[in-house]
Amino acid sequence: MDLSIGDDGLARPAWASVHDDLREYYDTEWGMPVRDERGVFERLALEGFQSGLSWATILRRREGFRRAFAGFDVEEVAAFGPADVDRLLADEGIIRHRGKIEATITNARASIELRDEQGPGTTLADLVWSYRPARTPMPVVAADVPTTSAESVALATELKRRGFRFVGPTTMFALMEALGVVDTHLLGSHRRGTSGVWSTDGFPVAEGHTPS
Q1: pLDDT per residue rounded down to tens, the chain (212 residues)
Q2: Candidates 55, 102, 113, 158; catalytic one
Q3: 138 phi/psi in degrees, rounded to 5
Q4: Looking at the domain assignment, is residue 23 inside a domain?
Q5: Which of 42, 47, 151, 177 is an active site residue?
Q6: What is the C-alpha R_g of the chain?
Q7: Catalytic (active site) residue 29
Q8: Left, alpha or beta for 136 (phi > 0: left; psi -120 to 50: alpha)?
Q9: Is 131 designated active site?
Q10: Which residues hold Zn(2+) (predicted)?
Q11: Cα separation of 195 and 26, whole Å?
Q12: Is residue 184 in some structural domain?
């Protein structure tokens, strides 16, 4: 089943059963809906930095990233200039990768342009959530969990068109998982269907209803 039963009797996937910090992240945050612009921007940035690395590496530097990137305030990050890039390249609390640092700043500016272009109430979060599928995957084992989807390919294409960087289909699928846009918790996991967005059998939950 690729599930591990913890000392608390709860079933989790192997990746969330190795360390306490990963277990806490899985139990309380991963896959829960995030719908605000700052929250989505933060996770977009972290998923970009995670590319080629383990999620544990990023998670353990998360507070460092928040300090370095002004709490992921879109307006503040969009105003970063060359001196800020140099500062970030010297910051041992984050991943010091020039391309990813510059992409995060570019993506903040693109988020503002998106907001300005589409009008009040339309943000990066709105755009990402508009690619929610009609049904979410039903993985039994880890090998059943996809790494991309038609929706993540389409989202990546749209974000690239709008000037975003480090937003490939695989990264966007990981973002959608993290935000709750899709539910890829394994069947049998204690977290399956707990987001309020998806039922345990993979169908959308109507607003105001309790998932089953």
Answers
A1: 689 999 999 999 999 998 999 999 999 999 999 999 999 999 999 999 998 899 999 999 999 999 999 999 999 999 999 999 999 999 999 999 999 999 999 999 999 999 888 777 789 999 999 999 999 999 999 999 999 999 999 999 999 999 999 999 999 999 999 999 999 999 999 999 999 999 999 999 976 455 55
A2: 55
A3: -125, 65
A4: yes
A5: 47
A6: 17
A7: no
A8: beta
A9: no
A10: 185
A11: 12
A12: no
Cα 163 to its chain centre, rounded Å, is: 19
Smallest CA-to-CA distance from 88 within 111, 116, 69, 115 is with 69
CATH assignment at residue 129:
1.10.340.30
Q: Is residue 205 part of a domain?
A: no
From 15, 25, 102, 158, the catalytic residue: 25
Model confidence over 19-71: pLDDT tens digits? Answer: 999 999 999 999 999 999 999 999 999 999 998 899 999 999 999 999 999 99
- Structural domain including 117 reads 3-179
Closest to 73 measured CA to CA, from 108, 46, 106, 99: 108
129 is catalytic: no
Residue type (1 letter), 104 = T
For residue 63, give every residue at least 6 positions away whose Cβ sits within 8 Å of its Cβ, in sequence order, or none: 93
**Start-end of H helices in 51-204:** 55-59, 62-68, 74-78, 82-89, 98-118, 124-129, 150-161, 169-179
Handedness of CA 91, 96, 102, 108 (dihedral sign): negative
> The tokens 């709008």 sit on which residue?
162
**Residue 43 domain-assigned?**
yes
| 185 assigned binding-site residue | yes
User: Which pTM value belongs to this model?
Assistant: 0.94
